[in-house]
Amino acid sequence: MTVEDDDTAMLKVEIPPVSEREIGGVQLTLNQAATRPITIDVTLHGTLACRWIPGGCSEGTSVASGSDFSVLDDSNKITFAPGDITKTYRFKANDDNTVELTELLLFSISGLGLSWSILDPDSSEIIVDPSTPLDYDDAFSGSYWFGYIYDNDNPNNPNITITPDPSPVTEGEAATFTVTATPAPTSAMMVSLAVSEDTSDDQNFVASDNEGSGKTVTIPAASSPGAGSATFTVDTVGDTIPEPSGEVTVTLETNTGYVVGKPSSATVTVNDDDDPDNPNVTITPGLSPVKEGEAATFTVTATPAPSAAVTVSLVVSEDTSGGRDVVAIGNEGNGKTVTIPAADSPGAGTATFTVATVGDTTSEPSGEVIATLETGTGYTVGAPSSATVTVNDDDNPNNPNITITAGSSPVSEGEAATFTVTATPAPSAAVTVSLAVSEATSDGQDFVASSNEGGAKTVTIPALGSPGAGTATFTVDTEDNGTDEPNGEVTVTLETGTDYTVGAPSSATVTVEDDEDPNNPKITLTPGLSPLTEGETVTFTVTATPAPASAVRVFLTVSEVTSGGQDFVASDNEGSGQNVTIPALDSPGAGTATFTVSTVDDTTIEPSGEVTATLVNSADYVVGTPSSATVTVDDNDDPNNPNFTIRPSSSSVREGEVITFTVTQAPAPTSGQTYIISVSEDTSGGQDFVASGIESGGTTVTIPAAGSPGAGTGTFTVATENDSIDELNGEVTVTLPYSSLSAMVTVEDNDKVTLKVEIPPVSEGETGSVQFTLGDAATRPITIDVSLTGDLACSAIGGCPEGTTMASGSDFRVLNASSITFAPGETNKVLRFTANDDNTVESTELLLFHISDLDSGEILLDFNTPPDHLLGSYWFAYIHDNDNPNNPNITIAPDPSPVIEGEAATFTVTATPAPTWALTVSLAVSEDTSDGQDFVASSNEGIGKMVTIPAAGSPGAGTATFTVDTEDDGIDELNGEVTVTLETSTGYTIGDPSSVTVMVEDDDDPNNPKITITPGPSPVTEGGTATFTVTAAPAPTSAVTVSLAVSEDTSSSQDFVATDNEGSGKTVTIPAAGSPGAGTATFTVDTVGDTTIEPAGEVTATLEAGTGYAVGTPSSAMVTINDNDDPNNPNITITPGLSPVTEGETATFMVTATPAP
């Protein structure tokens, strides 16, 4: 049996009046909460004649037109959900700058009729509350109400119009407009304008900062020159992009003191002047992310490919927020270039631009390298014009910080230069640190042997708890070389490595002083006749300048080139210890001697060689330049010089096959000859087809003598290996050393690697991944082209699985490039995408993943893959919904705005309906600091702020107040804005508005001087005074007392400042303008000279806000304090002996020195 309810709900309608420019609302209230969905059809009318309204319009009113208001709610239906009591139908009263009567709106509820029924024709479920306001018109069928819009315009304000000046203009020229006030204003009047342009065909002639609202122009007063009229200009950009002509439009905006007339908008046409034949240049990122130390690559493309090569300019920048720094300074900035090959050249239309990244040891956030196209000649910058590659950090933040300092300096040549390498904190295990040694040789000085210079030097720092923990000494031997030369410098620089971070200072220098007699003669060496034939004597001239007072014996080293198997000098004539004597000043041949080296005349066919003599240092002379000389020695064997050829049996083979080479000697030798053949291969891409023994030892070929079978021709073979490794094709090269003759054969790889694809499902708001796994580690670069697609019809893929729909483009975002590259050695790669969180209750969504190119067929798909694999190279990706349809809707509204700095900005957060239990809502706080203003402490900004909304039935149910404290900082600055934005979380849905703003007004005197602080001398030694200079700009009109806070670095247990000298509330007084020392004061902090061995420390003085001044930048300064205690001094302690003792006995104490002195 059906039981019919006979109760009716009562509906109350209220329409508060509004003024132009305000948002109004029709407020609908039930006398009890709805127990089921209740829907009402509503309409807000304008454009009616007064005669259509019973009784006509009331005195002083007229009916609003359609342009006088706009309805803000999309539907003409109001629905009360179960539990709802109140609904609002919102509209905006438009501001028209016209002086007019109060305007009427007519709100109606259709379908009520005389029975008041609004649910269906057969029921009377709701009646209108008869206690409705007086603007309810009972004579008008009972379902119509008046709404009132009050005028806000002053009839005495001047009328403002705008007209364009000559049109069109050419890009790069200014568009001008005339703004006129009628009548001319009694005082100068500022008029607000908005600038826009037509970009419908991608044309763009106005810079973004010249567009938008809030532009102004000032119209002179009636008594001033040019009264009543002003010119407003908009600069246009003369770019290099061919584009359609455009239009710049300036529109008058409403404001106080004037009325916007007609025309209220004016337009100037802007003509393009660029060559449409220039190619369009775009840029896309390569592999991203990369690890620091790897190059970031970008592809620059010209469409169409240019008829001649085009040089494109780029600017390189990086994201350094958070202290990250992955690009060297020299690789940043503008003026970088890349050349795109012409249409008829290899690689036509495309070029790769690379940016080297720095593989440091600093733990830092991941960074981004950005390459942006710059305008230039012969091309047009297209879109995308900028590309970004992410650079991931690979360092450990727990590593100790390594620094280096110089030991005693200067040292004399021959003494060792010492350096102290320190780890802070001392490492838990011994750490080996890499260093590079260099020296200054700009003036010819040389004190360090080349074997002791360069990188990859090491020193080991002992672990915590070991003797000398945290510190090691590194030494560089210097040479006492007998050369008179300028003093030099030896520099040791820390290099990056594992298990530590390079700190500052990272480099230290020791001066090396020369100790030679400048009166010693300078010895030089020059070669004699060259070339010579083997068997002849090689000669060198040794010269002393000036000629010595007594004969001088000069020492030399003799060496020769034997790399091609040649050998012309007997071993006892080579090496060090060779010498020659130069006659004295008063002797025949004074100052010059001839040094000779005998060569061997053998019967070996060999390449030409070189004999080199090099001067050796001595205390009796100085080695000058040239200090070395070389003579060529030619071979004189085999005058027939036979002609050799070498040919492979095929230009290419498959791996595992044997390569045969034929060697021909013409004429054939008189006796059989065996030659050594060298074998090499190209392994630059990791490929390897020839056994290492064959490469290192080579092979031989025998040429039969003339008159023998096969005279003059011999063959040899090189076997290749058939491995199971997928690798690049290789090249095997064989060379006959004596003729430099070679032949090359390509070895083709026959292996393929398998690829497995997996796509775990994700939920909205999460980051998903397509996971690629190779069956074997890549031995060469392997690239696959991929795509992740939405916006497809289910019918296009043969139907979607039950309970799913295809995702749209707004449901996800791909985070990687459109290709995946495996570097040699890699097995796994990931294509990442974000599943966007939309707060919409919906089905599981599908993405379609596709591989379009498997490295030109060199990869096989592994079909042991999850069930979501489709035919061929297509896969499904699933995005699960995370929204609850029963969650309350959360909105936010500002409380009174503006507030004064120092007052809290308050916001009201509302849940509709009120939650069944207390609900915590997440919020993000931000502020506008674009003009340097700052009213909110950083700790109060950012995401993750929260407020709790009381549950239904609790006091304040459904609403909570969130406050943001602002700071009264003493700084004169522009007004600012504090914005609070709702963040997604569990248990609720974000509604509209989701973000609101409160204005914060500055209350500081702009005439206050700005105070800054700088450090005095740094470092100072403990026991000394740290000084700081505090400056007021401009100097104050009367003396100003400035507050400061003092702190120090005690992170390594150092302590140089007494506690009563630390903390806030310290002061210094700056003298007034006209007084001695006007505008500047010195602030001092005494340090403690103790006997404790401790690391260097830092004392920091920071300005605090106060009265009569503003804190400027820098607001903080630091002075380093050095310890002056000898770490080698023993540590003295005292302990009591026998205790107690009886009076008359001796009291004893043990005083201990550690270590024993």
Describe the structure.
One of its GO terms (cellular component) is membrane. There is one protein chain. The chain is an all-beta fold and 1157 residues long. It folds into 9 domains: 142 residues, Immunoglobulin-like, CATH 2.60.40; 113 residues, CalX-beta domain (Immunoglobulin-like, Sandwich); 113 residues, Sandwich (Immunoglobulin-like), CATH 2.60.40.2030; 113 residues, Immunoglobulin-like, CATH 2.60.40; 113 residues, CalX-beta domain (Immunoglobulin-like, Sandwich); 106 residues, Immunoglobulin-like (Sandwich), CATH 2.60.40.2030; 128 residues, CalX-beta domain (Immunoglobulin-like), CATH 2.60.40; 113 residues, Immunoglobulin-like, CATH 2.60.40; and more. 1% of the residues lie in helices and 45% in strands. About 2% of the residues have low confidence.
CATH superfamily membership of the largest domain, which one?
A: CalX-beta domain
What structural class should be given to the helix and strand makeup? mainly beta
Helix content: under 10%
Low-confidence stretches: 111-124, 134-141
Mean pLDDT across every amino acid position: 84
Rg value: 44 Å
Total domains, how many? 9
Q: How do the strands and helices of this protein lay out in sequence?
A:
Elements: E1 9-14, E2 18-19, E3 23-30, E4 38-45, E5 61-63, E6 69-71, E7 77-80, E8 86-93, E9 102-109, E10 126-128, E11 144-150, E12 159-164, E13 169-170, E14 175-182, E15 189-197, E16 212-219, E17 229-234, E18 246-252, E19 259-260, E20 265-271, E21 280-285, E22 290-291, E23 296-303, E24 310-318, E25 333-340, E26 350-355, E27 367-373, E28 380-381, E29 386-392, E30 401-406, E31 411-412, E32 417-424, E33 431-439, E34 454-461, E35 471-476, E36 488-494, E37 501-502, E38 507-513, E39 522-527, E40 532-533, E41 537-545, E42 552-560, E43 575-582, E44 592-598, E45 609-616, E46 622-623, E47 628-634, E48 643-648, E49 652-654, E50 658-666, E51 673-681, H1 692-697, E52 699-703, E53 713-719, E54 730-736, E55 741-748, E56 753-758, E57 762-763, E58 767-774, E59 782-789, E60 804-806, E61 812-814, E62 819-822, E63 828-835, E64 844-854, E65 859-861, E66 874-880, E67 889-894, E68 899-900, E69 905-912, E70 919-927, E71 942-949, E72 959-964, E73 976-983, E74 989-990, E75 995-1001, E76 1010-1015, E77 1020-1021, E78 1025-1033, E79 1040-1048, ...
Parallel strand pairs: 1-10, 2-11, 5-9, 12-19, 13-20, 21-28, 22-29, 30-37, 31-38, 39-46, 40-47, 49-55, 56-65, 57-66, 60-64, 67-74, 68-75, 76-83, 77-84
Antiparallel strand pairs: 1-3, 3-8, 4-7, 4-9, 6-8, 9-11, 12-14, 14-17, 15-16, 15-18, 18-20, 21-23, 23-26, 24-25, 24-27, 27-29, 30-32, 32-35, 33-34, 33-36, 36-38, 39-41, 41-44, 42-43, 42-45, 45-47, 48-50, 50-53, 51-52, 51-54, 54-55, 56-58, 58-63, 59-62, 59-64, 61-63, 64-66, 67-69, 69-72, 70-71, ...
